[in-house]
Design goal:
The structure holds two protein chains of two kinds. By secondary structure, chain A is of the alpha+beta class. Chain A contains eleven helices and ten strands. Chain A folds into two domains: 2-22 and 38-236, no CATH class; 249-402, Oxidoreductase, molybdopterin-binding domain (Sulfite Oxidase, Chain A, domain 2, Alpha-Beta Complex). Chain A starts with a helix and ends with a strand. Chain B has one domain. Chain B contains four helices and no strands. The radius of gyration of chain B is 23 Å and the shape is extended. Residues 134-167 of chain B have low confidence and may be disordered. The chains are: A alpha+beta, B mainly alpha.
Chain lengths: 404, 167
């Protein structure tokens, strides 16, 4: 026990032993003392911006993780089909808070920029590790915000990696580096936040002015983008990459039939939807699908990119199709397959809660018209509380599995 | 508490690194390149620009209007950052008019003009109130006077020193 304590002390001493100072002649340019003179910068300002960023990054991380879990459910992760608009809400929030992070991050990095030029650059091994962790945090935070903006504006060329996977793993990296940063800075920040609150010093007004400016920028950005998911704000959405009412039949499209290479197959008069059960299967042509009981549901298409729009979908209940091949629809999962010949989202799994849900449809009509080709004609899946990319279009088969 | 945060954070960093390396969808080299790229562009190009704008405001704008001018610059920079890829429009898709459907260049010009108009209005009102007597808040005359000393006596000015106050 004593030996271990001694080893621990030795380790701490080794980590915190001052390293030799670099020659003062190297202290040039921004490394010189007093170069950054703005009195706006303070630990309190950095702390306040940090708290706000912690909130937006936390919300972004949780809502992003939720979407990842819904799209790649690990064993035992059950996802309900209600509330209908829950996925829509979380992903709208993900993008709103992600965008709100942009001015906060900009101001935060400005407020701590002189620390990049600390002298000596490295005081000890522990100091070097702390600085490296801050570097990881800053790079990961910029990666998430810049990459996120490029993604919602669909400009992928500057990103030499598959966005979804990169954004996911760097999200973990950012949260990890953030926890380290909070752990290191907690006492200093806490002291700065409480001390200055009691004694306003000259120049405090400008800090408030700066925070007001950042808040105004955040508000303006939110007002001019949130309309891509909040219908009442759509008139103000000057910078929304999507408009809820813009697109064929009043709904935006992510992947067109031509992008997916399915035009000929989808328009082929010999189209059939095959429903495959454990013991038998059945083929339905469009007339056959229309001959079944039709149901109408108001459901959103909600994209992970933060836009969403509600449509009035009409078609056949998925549970009715499941029953057609002799499976109890309250205990079934479904694999929906598209006419597409490739692509990450060619098939999707419909979990039991969504199969059971009477609002889950194989839709044939949208807003009173036959489905537009780009919305998945002849037939598409539409289910409540489900990511848009999993609402499989141009359905060719439905494979029903009985849950044990 | 602090040690728990640090250990949990390091564990998540390790998890992220291991996950990225083992995920067949992740091109690790591409991710690292983009991490380094955004860091370098921000810390060198972007910060130099921000500090230069700050220096310009310090020199060109009267002290009592500086808070408003800075707030304006922050809003304009934020909006431009998000609108920039939309205005460039590389994300447009020929067969899909529902993607990037708006005239973003015109919208950006409109919003920047709006921000400028609000700034001028606030500045003008601030100026009028100033004539009636000192008002609290954005007109605080103490704001522009504070300055930390620099070793070169303030002769040299650098782009990274842009947020220094008027000497």
């Amino acid at each position: 026990m004593t030996g271990r304590a001694t080893a621990g002390r030795r380790l701490i001493r080794w980590l915190t032993t001052p390293l030799p100072q670099p020659p003062p002649a190297l202290r040039r340019g921004p490394l010189r003392p007093g170069v950054f003179g703005s009195r706006l910068r303070s630990t309190r300002l950095a702390g306040q911006l940090g708290v706000a960023l912690g909130l937006t990054f936390g919300v972004c991380f949780l809502t992003g993780l939720l979407s990842h879990l819904m799209q790649h459910p690990p064993a035992g992760f059950a996802w309900p089909s209600r509330p209908i608009g829950f996925y829509r809400f979380t992903q709208g929030l993900h993008v709103v808070t992600g965008l709100a992070s942009a001015p906060l991050l900009g101001a935060k990095l400005w407020s701590v920029y002189p620390r990049l030029f600390t002298w000596p650059p490295v005081r000890s091994i522990a100091h070097a590790a702390e600085r490296a962790a801050v570097g990881v945090l800053v790079a990961a935070a910029l990666f998430q915000v810049v990459g996120g903006v490029l993604n919602i504006t669909r400009w992928y060329t500057p990103m030499p990696f598959f966005f979804t996977a990169g954004h996911y793993w760097v999200g973990w990296l950012a949260i990890g580096a953030l926890l380290v940063h909070v752990g290191v800075r907690l006492p200093v920040t806490r002291a700065a936040l409480t001390r200055s609150a009691m004694s306003a010093r000259p120049g405090g007004l400008s800090r408030r002015g700066l925070l007001t400016g950042v808040a105004a920028a955040t508000g303006l950005l939110t007002l001019t983008t949130a309309g891509q998911t909040l219908r009442p704000l759509s008139g103000l959405a000057l910078f929304a990459p999507r408009r809820p009412g813009t697109g064929p039949q009043g709904l935006p499209v992510n992947k067109t039939a031509d992008n997916a290479g399915v035009r000929a197959l989808a328009l082929n008069p010999s189209y059939r939807l095959t429903v495959i059960g454990p013991t038998r299967h059945t083929d339905l042509d469009l007339d056959g699908l229309h001959a079944m009981t039709q149901h109408t549901a108001e459901l959103p298409i909600a994209c992970v990119e933060g836009w969403s729009a509600t449509g009035r979908w009409t078609g056949v209940r998925l549970r009715d199709l499941v029953a057609l091949v002799g499976v109890d629809p309250t205990r079934a999962t479904v694999v929906a397959e598209s006419l597409e010949t490739g692509g990450r989202y060619r098939t999707s799994i419909v979990a039991a809660p969504h199969v059971r849900d009477p609002l889950t449809l194989v839709a044939l009509r949208l807003n009173g018209e036959p489905l537009h080709l780009d919305h998945g004609y002849p037939a598409r899946l539409i289910a409540p509380n489900r990511p848009g990319v999993l609402q499989t279009k141009w359905l060719t088969s439905i494979t029903v599995r009985e849950e044990s | 508490m602090r040690i728990v945060l640090v250990i949990a954070g390091v564990a998540l960093i390790v998890y992220a690194a291991a996950g990225a390396v083992t995920d067949p969808d992740v091109a690790v080299g591409g991710v690292l390149l983009f991490l380094a790229g955004v860091l370098a562009v921000h810390d060198i190009v972007w910060m130099a620009t921000v500090l230069a704008v700050g220096a310009a405001i310090t020199r060109l704008v009267a002290a009592r209007h500086q808070t408003v001018a800075r707030a304006t610059a922050i809003s304009a920079a934020t909006i431009t950052f998000v609108a920039f890829p939309l205005v460039l429009g590389f994300g447009r898709s020929p067969g899909n008019p529902s993607v990037l459907p708006l005239p973003y260049g015109r919208n950006l010009a409109l919003v920047l003009l709006g921000i400028a108009a609000v700034t001028v209005l606030i500045g003008w009102r601030g100026g009028r109130e100033k004539l009636k007597g000192p008002a609290p808040g954005i007109n605080d005359p103490r704001r522009g006077s504070a300055q930390e000393g620099t070793p070169d006596g303030g002769r040299r000015r650098h782009s990274w020193a842009g947020c220094q106050r008027r000497r």
